[in-house]
């Protein structure tokens, strides 16, 4: 069964927390639009966020690989090649993640670090707050 990847990390334009509900087996983010509860398929929002994360990783691939290898305590060429291969197949990993989800502890940690996704009542991602990331062209410092 699919999972809402970013449950607890999404707010609407009014900074109100967005809940997760299931419509059948489909997870949805529920946005309160002036009393009307809009159910937005979570995959629509999650894919927008994953695409942005993929873009960020792609732009900084060498640094990401080096940082990951060092954090694993294995900054050797073989470990870096394995990590390179993993990053080259992000789409497959993201597809799988839609079913496995992000563990609750991981989402809680992301929230504590300031990671937040702002969406409108149609499910369009307005911006993503990522701690430590350079602001995008439409974001301020």
* Radius of gyration (Å): 16 Å
Count of DSSP strands: 6
Structural class: alpha+beta
- End-to-end Cα distance, whole Å, is 39 Å
Outline the biggest β-sheet: 3 strands, mixed
- Succession of helices and strands: EEEEHHHHHEE
Query: What is the molecular shape?
Result: elongated
- Quaternary status: single chain
Q: What is the number of helices?
A: 5
Any low-confidence stretches, pLDDT <50, length ≥5?
Answer: none
Which strand order does the major sheet show? 1-5-6
- Count of the separate structural domains: 1
Q: Average pLDDT across residues?
A: 91
Write a short abstract of this structure.
This protein is of the alpha+beta class.
Describe this structure in words.
The structure is a single chain. This protein has one domain. The chain is built from five helices and six strands, in the order E-E-E-E-H-H-H-H-H-E-E. The chain has helices at 42-59, 61-71, 77-88, 90-100, 104-112; strands at 10-11, 19-23, 26-33, 36-41, 116-119, 125-129. Strands 1-5-6 form a three-stranded mixed β-sheet, with helices on one face. The chain has a three-stranded antiparallel β-sheet with strand order 2-3-4. A hairpin with a 5-residue loop joins strand 5 (116-119) and strand 6 (125-129).
């Amino acid at each position: 069964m699919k999972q809402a990847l970013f449950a607890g990390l999404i707010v609407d334009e009014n900074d109100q927390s967005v809940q997760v509900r299931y419509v059948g087996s489909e997870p949805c983010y529920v946005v309160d639009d002036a009393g009307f509860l809009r159910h937005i398929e979570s995959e629509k929002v999650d894919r927008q966020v994953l695409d942005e994360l993929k873009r960020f990783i792609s732009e900084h691939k060498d640094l990401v690989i080096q940082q990951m290898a060092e954090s694993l305590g294995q900054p050797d060429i073989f470990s870096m090649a394995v990590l390179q291969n993993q990053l080259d197949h992000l789409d497959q990993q993201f597809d799988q993640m839609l079913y496995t989800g992000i563990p609750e502890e991981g989402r809680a940690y992301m929230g504590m670090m300031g990671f937040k996704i702002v969406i409108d009542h149609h499910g369009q991602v307005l911006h993503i707050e990522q701690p430590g990331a350079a602001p995008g062209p439409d974001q301020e410092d």
